[in-house]
Structures are given as structure tokens and as C-alpha cells.
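dumping this here before i forget
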Amino acid sequence: MFSRFRSRNSVITFDVGSAGIRAFQATARGSHLVRRDALRLELLPSQRPADGELPQPDYSRLARLAGQGSFSGSDIGLVLSPPNVRFCALRLPKKALAQSPKRVREALAWEVAREMRTEAHELEVRYWQLPPRHQQGLNVMAVALPIERAIAWHDVFARERLRLRRIDVSPCALVHIAGRIWSPEENELWGILDLGFHSTTFTVVLGRVPTYIRSLSASSDQWTHRLADAFEVNHASAEQIKRTHGIQPTERGIRASQPDPVPSELMNAQDIPGVVFGLLREPLDNLVYEINRCLAYVLQNFSDVNVTRLLLAGGGANLRGFAEYLELQLDMPVDLLSNQRRGAGATSGLAAGETPALPVELPPTPWERPLVNTTIQPEEAAVIGGAILDLEAQ
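structure:
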């Protein structure tokens, strides 16, 4: 009778990206979920290697990190994103879907293997059913992971006496934690843009079901590289310019999509957000175009649905002025997947070229089901969502 008062811990969940490692463990105390411990480790070198590539994450390092802080237990979870996993929307006959989950996975493995040009026995496949009445008859979203890769990760942790118990995918983890912000209606269409260092994933959700998942061409590192070339500075300095100043559309930025290189020491600080916007205008416009295409595709395949909002996740979501720019271009509410205040340069009511003296702090969106004593930032949302998924599955 006292089981509901007993604390339960999630697996120690890791989200490993090109720019950093996020670790999180949640604890359930009765009906409340709280943070047990969290860890954040930046992987970016101070200077890029000669070939321009970052080193691959050292997964043995994750095992050592699990022994730090106040983490409890030896069970590990991973949250994976494309290209480590592959998503495929497929059509299966109703009779096939009525079979056992194992038989459905076997049938899907053959279909996914054909898409990936590999062998079915080399893939581990999971799935969920899509909302009904898809115009093309697609009724299943399959996600595939090479078995060899999963075994390699399992062996890395086993050597450190840890057990890889759970693997989740970032779109599902993000959708799950977004479901604590509000309860979307069944006909409510919304999206999560996960802007990472090397890749971006856009997930279109109908109600609570991830319905369309696509990798987009944008990346935070791509934008930094563009700034480094234009300002004629190294990668680390360009990243600092981007993080410090963000973007702000100005008359200069709108008209000059390809501005000439301008030495940063010749500019006033208030001019830099507009120049950064001008330099990034082309990839930003391309991103808006890709988002609109994804939304239009889903709208064509489902009737009587309404697009309501876009949430931003990943480290790139913190770019100052980015959410405001997307909100203006997409004509829909855009917010960070965060429960913290957002500091951004406001643009309304300003003349061309003007910037506010101080960033305007915007209050966070109230959450219907907030997490107690837990700070959630866009770059940490996926790992927190993965830990909560594990707790709620226990």
C-alpha cells in the first residue's frame, strides 16, 4: 500500500551530440517527477582540426561519466537522432498490423531495409501507428537502427559494468516532454524543430503522434562557418559573435543577402545583429521554405487539421532573435522548448537599424504539468524527455 510513495529512478540517460553530452536522471516521488542529477559536457575543441571535422564522441567516456555526481544505479539509456536512426513512413495492410508486434516488426524490417539498401536481419526496428485517414494510406512510422551499432554501444557500457537498458529517439522524447506544456487536440498540427550542431530534424505532430519526421539542411555549425568566412575570424570567434549578438532584421540586412566581409572592429556592437542577419539570410530563408514544405505536405494528407505552433529544441534554438524571426515568417506562435525566460532582441516598434539597449526578457510559457525543481533548456529537452519516458514505462 506504500508503493506509490517509494522513489523510483530512471535510467541514466545520455544524449550525445556533435557539440556536447547531456546526461539526466529523473526520480519519481509519488506523482511528482524531479531531477535526481544532470550533467552537461561541451565537446567542441577551442580550434577546429585541420580537416574541419570534429572527433567522434568517445562513448567509453559516457561510462565514466555515469559514476560522477549523484547518479544512481548502473542502467543506461541513450537518446538517438538521425543519422544514427532512420525514420520511414510506410503502408502496411490492416491484416499485417493485426499480428503480434514481433511479426509487425519483422514485416517492417523488410520494407525499411529496401529503403536503406541493406539487409533486414541487420536492422532493429520499432514502430508506431500514424493517425487514420492519411490520403496516401500511410499508417505506420518505422524507426530503424543497425543492430551492429547497438551491440557496440552495449559492449562499451558492459566493459564498465553498466547495462544499456533503453534506446529512445529524440523526436519521440521531445514530443513527450512537449506534452507537459499543454494537451494538444487530435486535429491540432504542430512541430518541433531540433536545430543541432551538424544536423536539424523537423518533427510534425498531429495531436500527440509524430506524423512526419525529416532531416533538414540547416545546422548551427554551417551558420558559424558562414560567419567565420565573412568576418575573417576563426571558428571559435565566429561562434562567440553568433551567441553574443544573435540576429535582428534591419534595412541593411534585408537588402544585403550577401554582404561583403566587414572587420568586426570597424562596427559598433549595435550594428552586428543586423550584419549577422544579412549573412545568414539565405540559409534562414531556406529553412523557412523547408518548414513550410513539410507542413504543407502533412496538411495535404490530413483534412480538418489546424497548424497551431512551433517549438524549438537543440542548441541552435538559443540564437537570439531566431524564434522571433520564425514567428514572423511562418505566421504562427514560435517558442523555445524550455521552462526558462527567453532573452531576445525585440524588433517591434524599432526604426531600421535600431536595436534595444538591453535584451527583452520574455516570460516562459506556463506548463500544464511542470517538472518540479528542474530547469529545462532547449538543448536538454531530448535527454530529459528520454528519462521521463523510461520512468513512465516502469
